[in-house]
């Protein structure tokens, strides 16, 4: 679980000490955060950008982390918000620019950092069609096997709503494939 | 984890493996890189503005400002009323002095009526 690293609200004389503690936070959480982000944004470059923003935001707002929640929950929450903001901005840009309609599956298969086959690419295509929050719920439950209680704290949504969202997502993805079978 | 049949279908067909990879040494480079990008003392001073607990004076400042404004309003009202009272006092004094002047005026008219020299008339009246 969390080996909670204590970081106090900073004053200039403590800045160096807290920088070292923050380095440990980065070391501990960069990889799990990255994968959560990557499953949503799909591209490595985009995931890298979002991950940087997450840690910059965490560093800048460290004074507001008052140990009311676990460090992991706080960081994941920042990551969720940054990811959703990124996706919404990208959607607006794509619709504004009238961007290229290459399917998600084709884009992934052309991506050097995609390690799957065509079946996997099609699954990602189906997931990408879900609304962003539902997509997040599906990824957290299906790939991370996250408990609903933990997801509820992370997304600040009731467990009942999350269960309903997940089952609906599973149904949509299943129907996506059954129509092609 | 309890699965319904649809979820089972997905798990059996696709598995739960992540089909993504990262460049070699990415996380090590990321960790070093992000620390170099973090702002230094300006971040902590930003935290002092917004994030740290406010001092007692900072908490009381809005109330002090409100109290100062109230004090000014009350003082201004008091001064205004004082001056207004002053004007009334002057008016009263003027009215009194007009009365006394009219009494003197009646005396002078009486003196004229008796066709005496004013000084003589006053002298007569003074004996009584």
Structural write-up:
The complex is a heterodimer of chains A (181) and B (128). Chain A has a domain at 11-99: Rna Polymerase Sigma Factor, Chain: A (Orthogonal Bundle), CATH 1.10.1740.10. Chain A is built from eight helices and no strands. Chain A has helices at residues 15-41, 44-60, 71-97, 104-109, 118-128, 132-142, 148-155, 159-178. Chain A is globular. With 128 residues, chain B is mostly helical. Chain B has one domain (5-127). Mean pLDDT of chain B is 69; it is low at 42-53.
- Alpha plus pi helix count of chain B: 5
Count of DSSP E strands of chain A?
0
Shape of chain A: globular
| Overall CATH architecture of the domain at 11-99 in chain A | Orthogonal Bundle
Largest interface: A-B, 50 and 37 residues
Q: Spans of chain A of 5+ residues with little confidence (pLDDT < 50)?
A: 8-13
Low-pLDDT sequence parts of chain B: 42-53
Q: Output the CATH homologous superfamily of the domain at 11-99 in chain A.
A: RNA polymerase sigma factor, region 2, helix turn helix motif
Strand content of chain A: under 5%
Multimer state: heterodimer
Category by helix and strand content of chain B: mainly alpha
What is the name of the CATH class of the domain at 11-99 in chain A? Answer: Mainly Alpha
Instruction: Give the overall average pLDDT of chain B.
Output: 69
Number of domains of chain B: 1
Give a short overview:
The complex is a heterodimer of chains A (181) and B (128). Chain A is an all-alpha fold and 181 residues long. Chain A has helices at residues 15-41, 44-60, 71-97, 104-109, 118-128, 132-142, 148-155, 159-178.
């Amino acid at each position: 679980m969390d080996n909670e690293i204590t970081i106090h609200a900073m004053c200039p004389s403590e800045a160096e000490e807290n920088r070292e503690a923050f380095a440990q936070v980065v070391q501990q959480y960069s990889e799990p955060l990255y994968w959560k982000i990557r499953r949503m944004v799909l591209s490595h470059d985009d995931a890298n950008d979002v991950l940087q923003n997450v840690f910059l935001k965490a560093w800048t707002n460290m004074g507001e982390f008052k140990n009311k929640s676990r460090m992991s929950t706080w960081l994941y929450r920042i990551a969720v918000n940054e990811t959703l903001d990124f996706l919404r901005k990208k959607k607006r840009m794509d619709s504004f620019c009238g961007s290229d309609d290459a399917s998600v599956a084709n884009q992934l298969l052309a991506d050097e950092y995609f390690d799957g086959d065509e079946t996997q690419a099609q699954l990602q295509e189906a997931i990408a069609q879900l609304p962003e929050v539902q997509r997040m719920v599906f990824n957290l439950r299906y790939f991370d096997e996250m408990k609903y209680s933990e997801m509820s704290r992370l997304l600040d949504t009731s467990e009942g709503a999350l269960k309903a969202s997940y089952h609906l997502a599973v149904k949509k993805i299943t129907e996506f494939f059954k129509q092609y079978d | 984890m309890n699965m319904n049949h649809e979820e089972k279908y997905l798990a059996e067909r696709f598995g739960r493996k992540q089909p993504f990879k990262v460049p070699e040494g990415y996380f090590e480079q990321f960790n070093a890189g992000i620390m170099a990008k973090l702002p230094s003392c300006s971040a902590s001073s930003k935290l002092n503005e917004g994030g740290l607990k406010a001092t007692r004076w900072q908490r009381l400042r809005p109330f002090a400002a409100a109290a100062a404004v109230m004090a000014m309003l009350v003082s201004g009202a008091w001064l205004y009323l004082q001056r207004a009272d002053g004007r009334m006092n002057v008016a009263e004094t003027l009215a009194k002095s007009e009365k006394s002047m009219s009494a003197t005026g009646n005396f002078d008219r009486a003196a004229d009526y008796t066709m005496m020299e004013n000084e003589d008339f006053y002298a007569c009246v003074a004996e009584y």
